[in-house]
Amino acid sequence: MIEIYNTMSKQLEEFHALHPGEVRMYVCGPTVYNLIHIGNARPMLVFDCVRRYFEYQGYRVLFISNFTDVDDKIIKKSVEEGVPADVISERYIKECKKDMQTLNIRPATIHPQATKEIQGMIDMIQTLIDKGYAYVAKDGTVYYRTRKFREYGKLSHKNIDDLRSGARTLLVTGEDQKEDPLDFVLWKPKKEGEPYWDSPWCQGRPGWHIECSVMSRKYAGSTLDIHGGGEDLIFPHHENEIAQSEAANGEPFAHYWMHNAFLNIDNHKMSKSLGNFFTVRDIVAKYDPQVVRYFMLTVHYRSPLNFSQELMESAKTAYERICNCAANLDYLLTKKGATVTPLTEEEKIPSPQAGIPSAGPAVLPSGTAVPVAVTAAEAAKLLSTENGAVSAADGLTAAEAEKLAGADAFRARFEKVMDDDFNTADAISVLFDLVKWINSSADEDSSAAFLAVLRAELHTLAGILGLRCEMDGQAAAAGDDELASYVEGRIAERQAARKARDFAKADAIRDELKEKGILLEDTRDGVKWKKA
Questions:
Q1: N or C: at which end does the chain have fewer Cβ atoms within 10 angstroms?
Q2: CB of 430 within 8 A of CB of 465?
Q3: What is the dihedral of CA 85, 87, 92, 94, to 10 degrees?
Q4: What is the per-residue pLDDT for 485?
Q5: Positions of E strands within 154-301
Q6: Quick one: pLDDT at residue 527?
């Protein structure tokens, strides 16, 4: 049973879907006025893993994540560049999607945009006015009556009287129209040069908070299973969403609230003024995107994540161990005469209907692809039967079948920690225990069937975390079949020379490959290579 830490109750709660077999989840997306920074990337990665795990467990997931495409920052940027605001927002929506793909973050089921949902916002605002939860000021601004919603503060656990006392000193020009300092904007009048829409109250544009209330209701209904985002959104954004949605709809807005903690740079808050502000592209220019993804999952999502060059270098070294294990399995399978099929894009980013991320089949000499959506014990039973699927020479030995029967413990442990509020940090620890076990269990004497099942298990568990078991640089190199064939052949010759103690020849092969831009690395898992 999956348990989720609910920000509302401040405790772990068993997850029970509103609709059997389906999860409806809404995660607040970025305001698109610039390239996304690594702080933006954390919730994207966190909830991508949440989604993947639900799908692994057999749920259909309706995943909604919006783009805020009308905002003061977007307007400011449009004025600076002398272009319409939608040119800015559309540009950075495209760039955001590119960065998401780079980090292997799957697209949401729906990416609604605020500017395309204006009528729905006007309708909800009118409903709030009709119910007495909102009022129109003289200049056409529409405000929400915060104190009328008696449960205001239930998510952030703030006392509304304390908030009101503190708000008295925060009044700015124009807010003297408010009935109460805590009232917040639902609709605001246009300013010169800003985009605007017609409404019953004035020409203007919506406030920030109303958009998510409207878009979540349109695409997922009045009540969500899960609403998520960064912890900075708890108050006031998510608190205001609750007030709007529950007043308008008369139903609970979300059953579970999930919030990830901040990302810091060298133990300091990321800030342009401190010179420690990094976009995703700044980071992936220095580190492989898969290393960046791996690093962000090594800490539980509710704990602060500290980013530093030292920690990134450690993450790179650690992730290489996973990649080396996967590459060694491929190498051993190839030596057995198996054709190791590269991952397709569909297998790297499985559809909701796919259930378990595919490992990409390792085709045995008999022509049978090893199934991946099974437990190790089930695979062992299948492969060891006399049904003609695998020839006797390729079948599991009794010792291998016994080993695989015990390998299910890794998946059970993995599921246990992921069931515990999606603990990716502990899941990665299990993944490394699996890597250690594979490295000690797989060798040149292993059967092709045994190696294929190990490969499937490694890729399945890593795939739930969105990890491909290869660096993106390795994937690019592997895509050149002619180059790969040449390099693997020279590596085999070098290994033969070393076995014959002809070290001069072995060194000469290494130097030859280096001149051609190929770097070799001798590891306990075998020889690995990459483009320089």
A1: N
A2: no
A3: 140
A4: 72
A5: 184-189, 204-206, 224-230, 254-260, 263-265, 268-269
A6: 81
What pLDDT, on the 0 to 100 scale, is given for residue 516?
A: 75
Containing 6, the helix (H) or strand (E) segment is strand 3-6
* Bridge partner list, 207: none
Q: Say if CB 36 and CB 42 are below 8 A apart.
A: no
CA 494 to CA 362: how far, in whole Å?
26
Task: Quote the pTM value.
Answer: 0.83
3-state secondary structure of 376: helix
Nearest to 393 by CA among 457, 438, 450, 439: 450
Helix (H, G, I), strand (E, B) or coil at 137: coil
The radius of gyration computed from the CA coordinates of the chain, to the nearest angstrom, equals: 27
Beta strands in 395-459 (DSSP E): none
Say how far apart CA 372 and CA 359 lie, in whole Å: 6
Spell out the residues 6+ positions from residue 70 whose beta carbon is closer than 8 angstroms to its own: 85, 89, 114, 115, 195, 205, 206
Q: Which two tokens stand for residue 373?
A: 């959506």
Show the low-confidence residues of the chain (pLDDT under 70): 164-175, 273, 341-394, 472-482, 524-525, 531-532
Q: What is the DSSP letter of 201?
A: S
